[in-house]
Amino acid sequence: MITTIDHRDESTAKAIQSIQRPAYRIEAELMGFDGIPHITETVEEIQQSSEIFLGFMDGYLKGFISYKEQDGIVDIYRLVVDPIQFRQGIARQLVDQLLHEKKAAEFIVSTGTANTPARKLYESFGFKEEETFEVADGVTCTQFRLTA
């Protein structure tokens, strides 16, 4: 079940952190870059986030998506699935839920250019590559946009 989760709650923030760290470590390996901020994010930093979180709950938190919305644009900040739950359609369900729940004019998201699974997922929903930008020496991210 996908529902809004309260990341300000300490136990929820700990659950977010517990799946976020290993998931972002995998992306870091794909990118050849270990400087992804979410790998070292503390529980307190998660609790202080101004993002809105939707969680995939099935006995426990198996994945989540977070976003901010402003001026008709939904900016996806995180899409995380517990690595032991990879390839079960959880990320697809989270993106689908957000797209149906928010009737925004536009959605934007950035991911590591080398993160082929994430790129393919967003492209399958109709997101179009907009720009590539360097986040560290030789390491790039790609921004995607979906216009309603």
From TrEMBL:
E.C. numbers: 2.3.1.-
InterPro entries membership: Acyl_CoA_acyltransferase, GNAT_dom
Single GO molecular function: acyltransferase activity
Catalytic class of the enzyme: transferase
Residue stretches making up the N-acetyltransferase domain: 3-148
Signal peptide as annotated in the record: none
Pfam family, one: Acetyltransf_10
Protein name from the UniProt record: GNAT family N-acetyltransferase
SUPFAM superfamilies noted in UniProt: Acyl-CoA N-acyltransferases (Nat)
Keywords: Acyltransferase, Transferase
Record flagged with keyword Transferase: yes
